[in-house]
Structures are given as structure tokens and as C-alpha cells.
Amino acid sequence: MEVLVPGGRLDLGKELAVRKIILVGGGARSGKSRFALAYGRTLGARRLFIATAEAGDAEMAERVKRHREERGADFATREEPLHLPALLAERHDADVVVVDCLTLWLCNLLMHDRSPADVEAEVEKLLAAVARREHHTVLVSNEVGLGIVPESALGRGFRDVVGRAHQQIAGQADEVYFAAMGMVLRLSPEPVRSFRPGEAP
Fold first, then answer.
1. What is the pLDDT of residues 41-58, one digit of tens each?
2. How many helices (H) and strands (E) does the chain have?
3. What DSSP assignment string belongs to 64-127?
4. Which domains does the chain show, CATH number per domain?
5. 17 to each of 7, 32, 146, how far by Cα in Å?
6. Catalytic (active site) residue 83
7. Contact between 141 and 22 (Cβ < 8 Å)
8. How many CB atoms within 10 Å of residue 147?
9. Is the pLDDT of residue 90 over 70?
10. Which of 67, 83, 112, 166 is an active site residue?
């Protein structure tokens, strides 16, 4: 759709197409969150950070406090452990929204007695919400499928739910990154490229 603007025409389809879905995955302490924040800072001056963690004990409360201090004043912050799709569907006065992290959100759903099918439906709602976005969306998640098979049924179910969610989201993402040992690899789009700690595309 084109509209008249001073100096010519504006293709709204092309303007909306530049709003990207970016998936950043990796293991614990791999550098994925640092990369996501650094990348987010390059995508616009109005930035929103959505935290999915619940400060259920003193250790988690301290982690939440430390992460908030590390972000500084660069990002406004919202906390949403369960209803992430609804929050993302809201209109935000932001150029970029960083969600950290999807794994905790998925865990929260399972711990609130959502079935794997329910969780998959929630992921579809999330994708539908970001598809209508007016901002860039950076989604951070943990890769949990590279280790041994979990001993418990709950652990195996969690691994499977996270793996399927990653496949769903990666299938819709414009860019996919994987962090390991402090380095970040761009898996898609080609060509594959590496980024050093603190470096952003």
C-alpha cells in the first residue's frame, strides 16, 4: 500500500517489512543476553525490555536486581512471567522490544499446569502478536537440548517443549543467532558470521 508523503510516495508494506523478529539462543552465561541488549541499542532510541523471570527466592531476586542495573537507563522495563503474547500484542511506544527470556516463560507456563499443547498454542499467539508489530522484536532463549537426556519426565518434557518452540519461532524469525563461549554466530540469514563479546551487527 502506498500513501502520498512530502517529496513522493511511501510504501507502507516495505516500511513494515523492515521491523524484524530476531531470535538469540545459547547456553547459560554464553553471552546471548549481552548480545541482545547491544543489538537492541542499535535498533532505535525507544527501547523496552520485557523480563519473564519471577523473583521467587533471594537468589533470583538478586539476579533480577543485577540484570536491571546492567541494563541501566537504556531500556524501560516491564515484567510478565505468564501473559507474554498479550503484552506483546499491546501497542508500545518503542522502536525495539527485547524479551529475556523465552525459556523462563515456557517454564512458568508448565509450572502453572499448562499442557505441552497449551504451551504450543501460546507460542503461536506470541508469533501472531509479533507479526503485527510496529517495532523490532528481539527474543532471547536458552538452548537446552545439547546435553544428556534429562532423568525426569518433567525435565524431558521441558526440553521437548523448548525445542519445539525454538523451531516454531526460528521458522518465522528474520534473523537467528546462537551464542557459545562468549561468541555469537549468525545462523540466518547467510552468510554465517561471528560476533565477539559486546559486538553487534
1. 999 999 999 999 876 666
2. 7, 10
3. HHHHHHHHGGGSEEEE-SS-HHHHHHS--S-SEEEEE-HHHHHHHHHHTT--HHHHHHHHHHHH
4. 17-188 (3.40.50.300)
5. 21, 25, 33
6. no
7. no
8. 9
9. yes
10. 67
